[in-house]
What we know:
Shape: globular
Helix content: 25-40%
CATH topology of the largest domain: Rossmann fold
Strand order of the largest sheet: 4-1-5-6-7-8-11-12
Number of strands: 16
Structural class: alpha/beta
Bound molecules: asparagine
Number of domains: 2
Radius of gyration: 21 Å
CATH superfamily of the largest domain: L-asparaginase, N-terminal domain
Largest sheet: 8 strands, mixed
Distance between the termini: 45 Å
Strand content: 15-25%
Amino acid sequence: MVKGVLQMKKILVLHTGGTISMSENEAGEVIQNEENPLLKLTHHFDFEIDLVVEDIFNLPSPHIAPQHMLQLKNRIQKAVNEEKIDGVVITHGTDTLEETAYFLDLTLPNNLPVVLTGAMRSSNEIGSDGLHNFQSAILTAASDNAKDKGVLIVMNDEVHTARYVTKTHTTNVATFRTPTFGPIGLISKNHVLFFQELIAQTTADVNELTEEVFLVKAYAGMSPLQFELLDHPKTKGVVIEALGAGNLPPQTLPAIQKLLDKNIPIVLVSRCFNGIAEDVYHYIGGGVELKEMGVIFCRGLNGQKARIKLLIGLSAGMHNQELAEFVNNATS
Length: 332
Ligand SMILES: NC(=O)C[C@H](N)C(=O)O
């Protein structure tokens, strides 16, 4: 590098598939492409950022599994160690984007910006949001202010954290929201502006993944049968989206106790869209009783992210108290 000359930022772009890389056919169906249309469109960008582009997968995001997330983590770690990159952008289908983002948030120790984005309208639809979101994600990944903020999601001119963002609408371009406290930043034209940041969390390195961590949702009159069926040698952990502040129908308790007696960790979040689950209610099936039974309360995460956290804790070899503290998500 010549002294006094600013070096161009180098951003690793990993395309994984999703609507952002798809097109609509004549029948109005959204289909996969052999070649990512974004590759042909980047000449529209007028910033000087060196993009190192890789089609790591070409999958609709319902086909993405924790094994793919692990592959992404390993690829990013390799780039950090060997390729002198300044940031990473991952394009991804939106259906499971929050799970991949949170997996990376929990497993990548570095402070480098890692930004995920996607699209709600495919590449040839009127008002397609893919190229714009891609550009915003690149600008964010190249921003010095995006360092040390954990993994970020950039969609529709907003910057959200992997920890608390969620997909809230099936089709609307403003689908990604953080119900608890909103986005942490905004994209205003080509400027990335941050307004708040999260308290740091514990990360865990994983090289292999535990299988069979389940997610179940509670409902009025819930049958204990669902928990009885989970009493299986392959079951490694269960996350329950409980009612309200963290309560369950009383008839489910004996089956849950049986799982706990077998040392299967049971993690509880709320099925509510907003707020945290806590041991507030003291009646049969209330949070106080569930906590006394040994159910782990996970604060503020939704069910799918609590499942990723339990999966990572178990995969990192954590048990009992250590696992409970990791999954609890408490910072005080
Ligand atoms: N908007 C999208 O990307 C949704 C698509 N079904 C996916 O997740 O791959």
